[in-house]
Amino acid sequence: MNILVINCGSSSLKFQVIDTASETMLAKGLCERIGIDGSLTYENTVKKSGKITREVEIPNHKVGIQLVLNELTDPENGVISSLEEIGAVGHRVVHGGEKFAKPVIINDEVIEAIRECSDLAPLHNPANLTGIEACRSVMPGTPMVAVFDTAFHQTMPSKAYMYAIPLRYYENYKIRKYGFHGTSHDFVSSEAARVVGKPIEDLKIIVCHLGNGSSVSAVKGGKCVDTSMGLTPLAGLIMGTRSGDIDPAIVEYIAQKDNVSVSDVLRILQKESGVFGLSGGLSSDFRDLWKGEEEGNKNARLALEAFAYSVAKYIGAYAAAMNGVDVICFTAGVGENDAQVRAMIGEYLGYLGTAIDPEANKVHGELREISTKDSKVKMFVLPTNEELAIARQTLSLVEQA
Ligand code: ADP
């Protein structure tokens, strides 16, 4: 079955078409600047004929989807001859609250429930819903599935997800840790079990999803028992521009000192912090930070060291949470590509009886075991593929229906 995977932002729409029989990507692309002016990028990934970019008016997501479908069915560069060849659509939805611990087939009730979770993700869920509504109006007969970023983490025990604030905030407003990147943590941990050739039920796995946004999760017996992001994706590790964990009292302190609002401070913590902030605004991109470091920029060095230290501390915490660890995986942009950062993290892990093999660690963006032969804990670079994970989950639900 061909599945169209959609990831909708407020002014963007990313898509891929995946043939689930061979698990290959047929096409991918992106609508950007929706509602502003508009541009569409499209690539037939089978023909490998290169990217097509069109500057076209995209007033809303419905027009965006229609334009995507036109490209997909184009006689020359398309990958399908008619819309009937798309068996289902899988939508990435950021927040499923406590309502969704699994992907679901989308119907009116599900749409309402996603809307009810919008309070928890005011930037993301409304945008995801816009994409769902647009697809429903353009492809009314095609089954659609919602796959939630938070769902995989719903297995966390309450001792891991509750914040030590008055209980009424959980009872009244559902304030708790939810965690994000769940599709990636789920995909990478199951792939890790497959690669080591053991049932996931017997394994303790730590997944380090290190990209622009970064999170770590502890997966015991195939179930998430803890993860580093929180009520929102601002918590946990130091990230590209997000602060990760800080003393919450800092918010009021900055607000007073700079005479700005709480929202202003949160924007600073989201957009101007992380390795970007620590490097004195040099960059949120690790390639730029290494370049800076090579040129003697001390703040770039500090940002890289602090990032690696924050990952290493979470690995330690999650090894404790699971009373051991069998496999540690590195994934996403930094985790898959930055050998130096992986090596820096590896330096903290000797107490686990594990070490990174410098030769194996040279790998970029492909599956490889990077720990030494006698290492007690196996370490892998294991590329994530959230679109494929969404396509697999969509297929499985549509087949059951
Ligand atoms: P997102 O959270 O946006 O999905 P990605 O997982 O794509 O992020 O990660 C993007 C980040 O990966 C970039 O900002 C950059 O810091 C890092 N990155 C990508 N390629 C490399 C590379 N070759 N070496 C080091 N870092 C890289």
Structure description:
With 401 residues, the chain is an alpha/beta fold. It has two domains: 2-148, ATPase, nucleotide binding domain (Nucleotidyltransferase, domain 5); 198-386, Nucleotidyltransferase, domain 5, CATH 3.30.420.40. Helix content is 37%, strand content 19%. The strands form two sheets. The chain has an eight-stranded mixed beta sheet with strand order 5-4-3-2-1-6-8-7, with helices on both faces. The protein has a six-stranded mixed beta sheet with strand order 11-10-9-12-14-13, with helices on both faces. Helix 1 packs across helix 3 and helix 10 crosses helix 11 (298-321). The two termini are 15 Å apart. The model has no long low-confidence stretch (mean pLDDT 96). The site of adenosine-5'-diphosphate has 13 residues, from helix 10 and helix 12.
Condensed summary:
Helix content is 37%, strand content 19%. By secondary structure, it is of the alpha/beta class. The two termini are 15 Å apart.
